[in-house]
Amino acid sequence: MLQYYSLSVAHLRERLNSAVDSISDGMVAHILSHLCFCMRRQDWTAWKAHMGGLAAISRLRDGLAHLGRGVHTWILLSDLGGSIVYDTVPWLPLPSYFPPCKTSLKNLPIRLQELLSLLDPNSITVTQTIEALERLHFVANEVNTKGHSPFFWRQDEDAISVLGPCIHFLLSMPRLPENLGATLRLDEIVMEMVRLISLCLVSSLKAMFSFNAPEKAQLESKLSRFTVSYTRYLGGPYRDLKVWTLVTASLMQNGGSRDVYLDEIRRDMVGTGETDATSCVQIAKDFIWFFNLEYMTMLVMVIEKAPGPPARKKKEKGSENYTLAATNSTRVYELINVTIRRSNLQQTFSSS
Q1: How far is residue 5's CA from residue 334's CA, in Å, rounded to a whole number?
Q2: How far apart, in whole angstroms, are the C-alpha atoms of residue 232 and residue 208?
Q3: Which helix (H) or strand (E) holds 185?
Q4: Measured between alpha carbons, how far apart are the two ends of the chain, in Å?
Q5: Residue 338's CB: how many other CB atoms inside 10 A?
Q6: What's the Cα-to-Cα distance from 167 to each of 86, 126, 163, 282, rounded to whole Å?
């Protein structure tokens, strides 16, 4: 296999010397085969190089719209496969073959509509947050409607059609600066909270579709750190969003890794005077819910029987002081039989 790959790389370099062949359909197929191999081996450095080359070909050809849906599906799969690992904006736009895949605002759950009605619709950050929730709700509706059938979880192309547009949008959303400054707006905190919990959910769904999800642990770690730092600021009109995030995240975790979320749920219950954890779970179910989130009864028992949450550590003098400015406002790849996919591409590009 590695010998074949080395020969293929050498052939790829030869083709790059031709002004015509370097941007041909055959070259696109060649790069896609390398991307598939890189993702199977989880060689993300090589993936980045090949994906950059494919994006360059797309720019030189003013897009790849003439290629068939099957090829575009493979391109999307390759693009998102590494972009979600790096948590970076995808290299290529979402192919036009894919529908918007989002629930209209008026068809969202009432509890979610009530939250969104309090946000400033003229804020770009809020607009992005709303669309992310609309897209995630569409995915939840598809899973809740069809996911009871084992056959649903074996359809890799359907999985890409359902998850792909949502993942592409979530990765295209603005990010908070890695080196967070002194001033954070609530709308930015809400947006990043929605983005991270949504990415964690779709990553878990990828695994349920038997796709490889190497990004899952890293995304969950990001969400955990973000929760510790910022969940405390989401009260008042944002409480439902906070509770939904905490309950959903805790149900995706096992053992001690869920403690950070359970502590925040208990802390919220103390602050609001709640004594029944069932109400918190119900808030989450009335927001955006996936039927395959299990252990609800067990979660309620864990929350109610455990001791109170530990007190927060006070920030030492001189540590970062976060000022909140309130606003109005891949098996992705192992399931793909390389031989079958290569055969399909050879048929597509037979004229090249």
Answers
A1: 17
A2: 31
A3: strand 183-185
A4: 25
A5: 13
A6: 13, 18, 6, 26
Q: 223-260 burial by CB neighbour count: b if 16+ within 10 A, else e?
A: bbebbeebbebbeeebbbbbbbbbbbbbbbbeeeebbb
Contact 274, 313 (CB under 8 A): no
Summarised one tens digit per residue, pLDDT across range 263-300 is: 999 998 888 888 888 888 899 999 999 987 765 555 55
259 band by pLDDT with thresholds 50, 70 and 90: confident
Please write the tens of the pLDDT for every residue from 59-96. 988 888 888 888 999 999 999 999 999 999 999 999 88
* Integer-rounded Cα radius of gyration of the chain: 22
Residue 125 neighbours by CB under 8 Å, 6+ apart: 174, 185, 187, 188, 191, 329
For residue 112, give both structure tokens.
């979610």
Query: Can you name the residues that pair with 323 across neighbouring β-strands?
Result: 183
**For the chain, which residues make up each domain, given as ranges?**
2-87, 105-314
Long-range Cβ contacts of 121-128 (<8 Å, 24+ apart): 122/329, 123/187, 123/327, 123/328, 123/329, 125/174, 125/185, 125/187, 125/188, 125/191, 125/329, 126/187, 126/190, 126/191, 126/329, 128/173, 128/174, 128/191
Helix or strand holding residue 323 (H, E): strand 323-325
Structure letter (DSSP) for residue 107: G
Return the amino acid letter for 197. I
Residue 183's H or E segment, with its range, is strand 183-185
Residue in this structure with the two tokens 């690992």, named with its chain if needed: 85
Contacts of 202 (CB under 8 A, 6+ apart): 136, 139, 163, 166, 167, 170
> Beta strands 323-325 and 183-185: pairing type?
parallel
99: number of Cβ within 10 Å: 9
- How many CB atoms within 10 Å of residue 316? 6
Tokens 């802390």, residue located:
267
Q: What is the pTM of this model?
A: 0.81
What's the mean pLDDT in 154-165? 90
Q: Distance (Å, rounded) from C-alpha 133 to C-alpha 103?
A: 9
Q: Which two structure tokens, joined as six digits, stand for 265?
A: 């749920």
CB 30 within 8 A of CB 8: yes
